[in-house]
Backbone:
């Protein structure tokens, strides 16, 4: 049932034949909120939190005070005096009072008689799992049972049984004796997130949140507070059609969800194909990998502007550590907002359009290697589209453009990501002219070649430095073998492997598990290259090189390992 149905349950409970009911639900699902809604709407109900309670006496005392306080204003002194007269052997004070259950019974019946009240008085006990460890759970169940035997008194117990820990078994054993009916809250109320976040924010993140199964409303509460903090610090003036409030809502929610619901673990990677841990391990290598995970797996690529990922890192660090540098974040936001997309030049004059083309020519000819590749492509796309409209010659060939952007290409590459993720998607740039399409495709091909050039160089460095634990680059290369169709890339890979002793660290003497794992990966890599690229005798050449080394004649354990590697596989 949903949390808001608690009110209906308690309303029915008043007039039902049940005396003792139990409401179970995980933390943060909204139990207390709706219980208090019921209590505030009914004067004949009292609410007692067991949080930190060490003994039964303190619980009974709190019940007593709530019963006395239920007397209408103006009559409290009168009925307090009558109660004193009836129980003249008890010192009725608000502190240090020890009261027995029979006294509560007599007090309750006396007050109801004097006040002319009829009906049921409901006592609600909340936070069972948060009681002090000195208080035996059997004492609480005994108290509930005793109170429920008093005429016109009913009891409600509320807990998150998944948090009872060492008391769980005891509770199960005694629950049937002390409880008449159990209700389980499995979902928060439909309207709860909307009330917590407000319509504007829920409209944005509700679509994302509903993709996941979780019932902790505190995640929404913490998201709401964090959003308010971020906007208060950054200021309203930072938001534009390029850096939107909606993207801030999304980044804040993904960050809070990742930390609260998934405890900072990349749990969604487990839903991939078998053996995905190594394939997806690059997500774990650095901060950018975590942001890519949040963007792809939690936000499902839903940012209005993918450039906001540069701010995402700071949002995440801000929430997790409380540390942020406002100046850096503002500068990033300003760069996003100042990024010039294709100008809306339909109403511009021909002279203005020609100026745009000429400015792009000068920009391309004077690149210094620091300009973002995205900016370069965007400017070229605009200029070449207008060249086509005006039948104007841009004056720089495709081959020349690729040479001019050569130093900018490495800045686009992130070796912690696959070749596909490092590629250029033409759809992202809304390519409008055939010439622009040729340019972007050529840059994309150059980017791909450079990616594999840097990747094999990174593998070579790991091999030379004996950093065998850094095998993720090796896995990335192996996972790409089937998809690599371009001969220039194949030539780079094959030559680099041959020129560097096949990247094979001879497993002689005492070795580590990482060392042996690297040897196995190289063995599979070279076998796959021969199979999928059709390079005849490549694998045999590799084995011949290894077996021909002088060290093989002297090291018996090495010979054993090589037989295990080559023959058993």
Residues:
């Amino acid at each position: 049932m949903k949390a808001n149905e608690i009110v209906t349950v308690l309303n029915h409970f008043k007039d039902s034949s049940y005396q003792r009911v139990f409401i179970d639900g995980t933390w943060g699902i909204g139990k207390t909120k709706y219980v208090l809604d019921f209590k505030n709407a009914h004067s004949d109900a009292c609410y007692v939190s067991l949080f930190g309670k060490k003994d039964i006496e303190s619980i009974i005392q709190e019940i007593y005070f709530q019963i006395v306080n239920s007397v209408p204003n103006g009559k409290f002194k009168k009925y307090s005096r009558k109660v004193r007269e009836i129980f003249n052997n008890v010192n009725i004070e608000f502190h240090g009072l020890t009261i027995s259950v029979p006294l509560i019974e007599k007090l309750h019946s006396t007050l109801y008689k004097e006040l002319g009240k009829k009906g049921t008085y409901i006592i609600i006990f909340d936070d069972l799992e948060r009681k002090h460890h000195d208080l035996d759970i059997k004492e609480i169940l005994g108290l509930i049972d005793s109170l429920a035997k008093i005429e016109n008194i009913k009891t409600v117990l509320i807990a998150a049984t998944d948090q009872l820990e060492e008391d769980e078994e005891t509770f199960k054993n005694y629950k049937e004796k002390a409880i008449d009916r159990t209700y389980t809250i499995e979902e928060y109320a439909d309207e709860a997130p909307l009330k917590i976040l407000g319509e504007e924010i829920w409209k944005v993140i509700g679509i994302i949140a509903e993709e996941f199964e979780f019932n902790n409303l505190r995640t929404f509460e913490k998201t709401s507070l964090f959003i308010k903090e971020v906007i208060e610090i950054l200021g309203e003036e930072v938001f534009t059609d390029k850096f939107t409030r909606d993207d801030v809502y999304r980044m804040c929610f993904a960050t809070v969800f990742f930390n609260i619901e998934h405890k900072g673990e990349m749990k969604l990677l487990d839903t991939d194909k078998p053996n995905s841990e190594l394939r997806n391990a690059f997500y774990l290598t650095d901060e950018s990998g975590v942001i890519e995970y949040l963007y792809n797996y939690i936000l499902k690529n839903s940012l209005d502007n993918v450039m906001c990922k540069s701010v995402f890192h700071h949002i995440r660090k801000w929430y997790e550590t409380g540390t942020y540098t406002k100046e850096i974040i503002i500068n990033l936001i300003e760069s996003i907002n100042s990024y010039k997309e294709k100008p809306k030049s339909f109403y511009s004059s021909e002279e203005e359009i020609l100026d745009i083309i000429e400015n792009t020519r000068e920009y391309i000819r004077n690149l210094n290697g620091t300009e973002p590749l995205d900016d370069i492509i965007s400017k070229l796309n605009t200029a070449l589209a207008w060249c086509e409209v005006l039948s104007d010659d841009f004056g720089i060939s495709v081959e020349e453009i690729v040479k001019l952007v050569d130093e900018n290409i490495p800045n686009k590459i992130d070796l912690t990501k696959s070749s596909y993720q490092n590629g250029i998607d033409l759809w992202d740039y809304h390519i409008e002219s055939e010439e622009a399409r040729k340019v972007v495709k050529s840059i994309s091909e150059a980017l791909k070649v450079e990616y594999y050039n840097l990747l094999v160089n990174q593998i070579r460095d790991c091999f030379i430095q004996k950093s065998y634990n850094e095998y993720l680059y090796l896995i990335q290369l192996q996972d790409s073998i089937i998809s690599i169709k371009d001969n220039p890339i194949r030539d780079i890979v094959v030559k680099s492997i041959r020129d560097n002793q096949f990247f094979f660290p001879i497993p002689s003497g005492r070795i580590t598990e990482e060392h042996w794992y690297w040897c196995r990966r190289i063995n599979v890599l070279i076998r796959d290259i021969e199979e999928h690229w059709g390079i005849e005798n490549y694998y045999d050449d590799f084995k011949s090189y290894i077996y021909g080394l002088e060290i093989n004649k002297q090291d018996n354990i090495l010979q054993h390992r090589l037989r295990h590697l080559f023959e058993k596989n």
